[in-house]
Amino acid sequence: TAINSPLASYGLYYQWGRKDPFPSANATTINNVSGVTGSAAMYGTEKKVTITSGPVSMAIAIANPTTFYEYGTSSVYDWNSSPNVNLWGNPTTSIVNSKSPYDPCPVGWRVPVYKSGVSPWNGLSGSWSSKVGYSPASGYRHCNNGEFYNVGSSGNCWAAAPNGNYGCYLYFYSSHVTSSYKSSRAAGFGVRCCRE
Prior knowledge:
Blueprint: E1 12-15, E2 22-23, H1 40-43, E3 50-53, H2 58-63, E4 67-70, E5 109-110, E6 140-141, E7 148-149, E8 154-163, E9 166-173, E10 176-184, E11 188-189, E12 194-195
Parallel strand pairs: 3-4
Antiparallel strand pairs: 1-2, 1-11, 5-12, 6-7, 8-9, 9-10
């Protein structure tokens, strides 16, 4: 089940619209663990992450791929100082836009899309353990401090679609699935790629 998922399958975290990943937790159940500078025990020496206040420009974010930018005092809760709803393609209409250069998925794959405003996970409800497929309960990195939350108890997967000043995502825990939530684009969630 998702709750007892192997640690290696937790994957990586992404801030909405960014191509560069952040490492996931290296423990199966941790909460409120600081990731400000990282440590060999938590991340391994090669996985240190710097967390600093944002928002910042896209150019600064690209130049600093291991820096997780909090939304700071921004009222739009975004890491990006010039919010852009098209960073992952923004396919929220009946016309599915092409994959953007910021999409973190490999060739032939992309961040899941909304079609005509409908979630790619539309129809999922009830218990996550009864669903077909596998997504680990990898938790997330909080948007205003970069700390790990809910590792081992819930999961969040970004969609390419915005929702106002937020990004859309799938949320689940052992007994519940919500196919269309919205959250700060500065949060670090998983991405489960789908075929283009």
